[in-house]
Amino acid sequence: AKPKVGYYISNKKSNRDIIEKLSAIKVSDIKSLPINVTESTSVYDAIVTLFLENVGTLFVVEDEALKGVISRKDLLKASMGGKDLNAIPVGIVMTRMPKIIYCLEEDSILEAAEKIIEHEIDCIPIITHLPNNKVKAIGRISKTNITNVLLEITK
Amino acid sequence: AKPKVGYYISNKKSNRDIIEKLSAIKVSDIKSLPINVTESTSVYDAIVTLFLENVGTLFVVEDEALKGVISRKDLLKASMGGKDLNAIPVGIVMTRMPKIIYCLEEDSILEAAEKIIEHEIDCIPIITHLPNNKVKAIGRISKTNITNVLLEITK
Description:
Two copies of one chain form a homodimer. Chain A is 35% helix and 22% strand. By secondary structure, chain A is of the alpha/beta class. Chain A has a single domain (26-152), classed as CBS-domain (Roll). Chain A has a four-stranded mixed β-sheet with strand order 1-2-3-4. In chain A, strands 5-6-7 form a three-stranded mixed β-sheet. At the A-B interface, helix 1, helix 3, helix 4, helix 5 and helix 6 of A face helix 1, helix 3, helix 4, helix 5 and helix 6 of B.
């Protein structure tokens, strides 16, 4: 549901300060480390990795290149089928390149936040381009990172 | 991982404006509606509800009173056991009162954000007290709501 926001966007001058401040924070300033699995990792092992690493999203990587992204939601959907989770590789439930929403190191956190909201995802990879036309995930930015920023700028 | 934040908290004056602005936004201004199930709802049906309602957290309610909270993480954990998800009621996997972290309508979004980060949860109920010593969830506030605020204050 869309939040009611009208009343707190009245002070244009103060908003300009906030925009300036938030635009200056780059995703690379607040990024978390990527947690990677491979396409053949089972859904079961991916869920275990989520809990062990305490994250909500895993990246599927092969030879340094980002091949897919797998979220808690993807794993939950895979769990509904009643099949043996050890027998399902994440490769068949992940979101695959080129459908992955990503951002670049120099993007501001506002651009990342916009993508997260627009595409209804929890976390996006921060990538660099590899010479072979592939991309490498060098970090991730999530709603948790963004919630942290909101707290940090008020300290 | 803790974000690197040192460099953007230098301008104390501008921070005061931001704190003032964000402290004035109450959770009730940006809340989403609660999505409720009952203790006897199966884990399977709870997952279906998550997807249909497009939320990450459900509240478990009985006679208006909030009895528990169930997250994507709780449901994912329940799915790992290899049992029939139709046979497991959410009552045995939910976080139960009085262990639930909640906030009140008049709390600022900063207080909610702090609780979300401190307790590593995605979403907290906004409650009011019922006359019978129980509580009722009148809304929910999530990292999505907070990410939205960050975008809205820069518009």
